[in-house]
Amino acid sequence: MKILGLIPARYASTRFPGKPLVDITGKVMIQRVYEQCVKCSSLDEVIVATDDERILDHIHSFGGKAVMTSASHQSGTDRCAEVAANHPEYDVIINIQGDEPYIDPVQISKVAACFNDGDTQIATLIKKITNVDDLYNANSPKVVINKLSEAIYFSRSPIPHIRGQEAEQWLPHFNYFKHIGIYGFRANVLQQVTRLPISSLEKAESLEQLRWIENGYRIRVAETDLETQAVDTPEDLRKLPQ
Fold first, then answer.
1. pTM for this structure?
2. pLDDT of 143-156, one tens digit each?
3. Cα-Cα-Cα-Cα dihedral of 88, 89, 94, 97, to 10°?
4. What are phi and psi of 95, to 5 degrees?
């Protein structure tokens, strides 16, 4: 089984323009992500998929692999699908977020390992929620899973509702999980899901993975105890290790 790691990187972020090239203690963010990915022994190759020549040139400057993609893509998943279509030799594609400069290679390997089961179509990571702030943070999607370690639903709201308990007391009464935004796809499944129209659940929650569930695709989950530190805004830079 051959696995391709793809890092979609868009320059014109609404909340943080130029984010992939922001300096983090001497290296730009996209370089830090790339270097973490190439440490992962589960990946046969790592490529940055970008829409900006500044990002492309920087990746090439330190010997990394990067390709230009269309500027019209609506999501990182679509950007990955364009590159994957040109690499039919890969069985599995792993979409790694370009804004997590210290992603642990172990987390990537956990997603890759899900595909040792031939029935796995899509895979992602979850982490147990241990504090109330994460439970009620709408920017941190929650995941409900079944006994087969598959995602049933993703929501920005805390689900399930614990009947008979005050909301601030829900956490001790249920194992809540948050979603860690790394995805793996069978190569053919990636091409299929990017052709699906936006679904009603996706519109409601603004979570593209709901489109896949609504259309009958199964999402295998692997649990991690490692935290991730995504950079969504300039303020998030202050939270990173120095």
1. 0.92
2. 999 999 999 999 99
3. -70
4. -90, 110
